[in-house]
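@channel sequence for tomorrow's demo:
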Amino acid sequence: MVHNTNEIGNILLLLFLIFLAQTVIDFIQGYFQLKTLNSISIELKDRLFTSLIAQYSRVNSKQQIGEILSRFNIDVSNLITIIDVFSMAMIKQILSVISILVVLFYLNVKFTLIILVAYPLFILPLIKTGQYVRKLSRQYMQDYGKISNVLYEAFYGYLILITYNLVPHFREKYKSGNQRMAQNTLKGSMVSKVIGPLNDLASFAGLALVLYFSITLIKTGNLSVGSLVAFLAALLKIYQPAKNIFMLHNSIQTSMPGYQRLNSMIGSKAEPTEHSSVLTAEFGHSIKFTNVSFAYGESKPVLNNVSIEINKGEKVAIIGKSGSGKSTLITLLLGLADPQSGIITLDGTDYQKLEKQSLRSQFAYITQEPIIFNDSILYNIQIGDLKCSKEEVTEASKKAQIHSFIMSIHDGYSAIVGDRGTALSGGEKQRITIARALLRNAPIIIFDEATSNLDHETESDLKKEVYNLSKDKTLIIISHRVSTYDGVDKIYRIIDGRIENKGI
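structure tokens (generated this afternoon):
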């Protein structure tokens, strides 16, 4: 009795240890699997961010911002799903099916071949089902991008929505987009439910064929009942893994469009590409455009045979109407694109041979529409030079004539400005961007209609101050205003992409 009790206790202890070991192994496996997938997700999002920023000017002209943002959520999630399915679930199920097939072949070769004939008859419908699911998934992602864009535009254009009574219109656009997504989800779910019955039908057909042929074999003594039972028991074991494989295949088809879209974006080359022999840029005496032409895609050239020269210390005005090519000139000047013909040089060195980051460090850029981030005033100025001190920020603010205003508001430099600077007026936002540019202390400053949000008197005072502050800087002033002529050394007039005349 004692012996039996000890034996039972040992068995229970052994079972507990097996359970504990299995639990620990599952925990460790789950931890490392999740950690690996998270690392892959972070790396993918990092590469996608880098790729989109590098190609933004090209991508943004063709796609809505909502569609672009959806890639960070849906597309990355889809790729992680594919990796997870292939790395763990699919491999496990395939190995289970192969091992059971080996047993089935060992038990009865003829019956196993009958099973293998029955299953492929149902594979074609499953393939067609997978293709349909992939199509639904692709449409789902497109709709997701569209409704994301509706939300973005609704918040961005809030004042227009309210003023023009467009809230019902945008609500309907958002609602209809969600309805389309829901319909696609419902269709995909219903189609997925077909997979189980198809697999059951294939299993039933195989089982029926085995039983049909086994009856004669048993009667003639060529097959024992025990052998048939053993074969059927093994056959039942293959049912669930085979069903799981088809379900996982369907999951992969759902995720595949996101993977393809993500892969096409990350795999695309940024424009422009770096030259093989990259040189460090440092502005010494001049930047020259020599017979430069540029067009977006197959469209009409935006710049046509443009030649200009900007010497160190000069204040150069580039005058032209909206759409004349001024913004494209800035794009080329900052090295964001390469000309289709002609050459741009910095101190005689081709732009394409210069390292782009060092090239852009030569510029401070004050945009026509002030770019303000949803953070503190201090941060919005400090991003001109993230290594600068608070004192340097204050000094730049005083030079831009914004310090007094900052000190007069609650929280001062720590005040949060809101999304796109909604807590500030247009002139206040512009002054903050000017302080940011002054803090950068780059040798070249680009003013792109930089005083357009200021009244005439303030604009005049600020220009005089900027001219005084930039005695050792090179100023490039992009404008369509006649007032820009005051105090400049050189004027280029651009009309329909051509430099029509140069004056002083």
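heads up for whoever presents: The domain at 286-503 is CATH 3.40.50.300 (Rossmann fold).
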